[in-house]
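User: What would this chain look like folded?
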Amino acid sequence: MEKVTTITVNIIVVALVCLVLIWANTYYRQRVQFQKGEAALKSADYIAAIAGYESAIHMYTPGSSMVDESAQKLWAIGAAFERGGDLQRALIAYRSLRSSFYAARGLYTPGQQWIARCDRKIAELLNAQAMGGQHRP
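Assistant: Here's the prediction, encoded as structure tokens.
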């Protein structure tokens, strides 16, 4: 019986260590992608910024503030393109935000409020495009 207990404890410890290592690796990669997005945004390379923030959300780690910050930055980029009349790039930003959360889903889908918000905005922009680009943000 003592041997079974030792084996069980060892398995649990190994499993926990593996989970911590996976979480730490994902968090590190998320931070790298977020920093790439920040650097691209500072240099006004908006498409690269979208890619960086999108990738940061793909590296979803529960409790990470970078997920929400990335979502907010993607939304702001989309809104800026929209205000500037560039509906195609606005759609890229909003679709990237939405698809990032879909890509991060596992046992549940994080960011459901962002997905719903993006769905409404994408439908609005597609409707505006169909009407000839007459859109007011």
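Residues 27 and 61 are 6 Å apart (CA to CA). If you want, I can go into more detail on any region.
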